[in-house]
Design goal:
alpha/beta, Rossmann fold, five-stranded parallel beta sheet
Length: 395
Amino acid sequence: MHPAKEIYGTKSKKLSNKKIILGVTGSIAAVETLKLARDLIRHGAEIIPVMTNSATKIIHPDVLWFATGKRPIVQLTGETEHVLYCGQKDHADIMLISPCSANTISKIAHGIGDTTVTIFAITAIGTGIPLIIVPAMHISMYKNKIVKQNIEKCKKNGINFIQPKIEKNKAKQADIDEIVSNVIRQIGNKTYSGKKILIIGGPTSESIDDVRVITNRSSGKTAVSLALSAFYQNAKVNLWYGKNASVKPPQFIETKYFETSNGILKMANSTQLNKFDYIFVCAAISDYIPKKQKGKISSDKNKITIELKPTQKIISKIRKKASKPKIIGFKVEEKKDNLKQKSMKVLEGNNLDYIVGNTIQAFDRDINEIWVFNKKGKTFHKKGKKKTLLIIYLR
């Protein structure tokens, strides 16, 4: 068994049965291609590597042969490989050029096919195969007006670009997670295409004094998984996220941070919430706020008393301001015995569309058991990995 088959689908099956043409050009970022190819395979993809002559001077073709289990196409033969993979009924599902040089971008913009990668790209465009370009070059080349015009010309012809990371004098290739996520988004399930989704997640932290806070146990994993799942299915995603959550959200998800429950309210009051189609409120919001004491409470005291007062019900405030979106709340209990009763009380009391119930056993675990209740009390029950459960809340 080739080593590539050993990692097939070990992360997910989101790209299972998908054939991806991976074009590699003469950018130094080609050294990252092995990792990229392997990550795509971990999501179930079959990779067909295609390299320009310049790319072979940066990484040896055997590197990609090892990474993918397929001998890279470095020149066209009588087998007409570009037609075989990009011009027939059983063609590839997508072509990804990563990294893509300014030279290759400009050639594609003008229909010039004088390398293996550009010939594949031109054939793919003619067949209607989606094309994603991941630029990587010196900043002076990326800012060149002619290169910019060529990028815009490509975009007008339906070619997708993933923005590079601008660091000092470099337009660096986007992170591998972002590239893979965009591939999944491009050729995956587009159930929520055009939908705008707001996800509010992570913990709040309320000040006891100028040093200490009271907070809830929340990694933010549910909110991040929801955001990614919605992104994969072509939604426009906004994430409002607790700044003290332990799980970092993806950089390509538009994220705003809050610290306190009052911070969430301020964001809600300054946002037109009715522009969203769905709002998920899965944040671990403190039920009680301490009366903040000035300065720092002395650590020499043997005993202190903290005065707490109930917080405002954030989800109720959001519903009053957001009459159009479907709102999905979350309810956690110690045991599942009375979970439905308490969840339905929250749903009905706040006029929610759905509420997701679970127990504290799910904390800090990748495995979760959930119950989804709608207005009629109908129950949907599911147990499994968090990342495989989340987007079902929208159904």
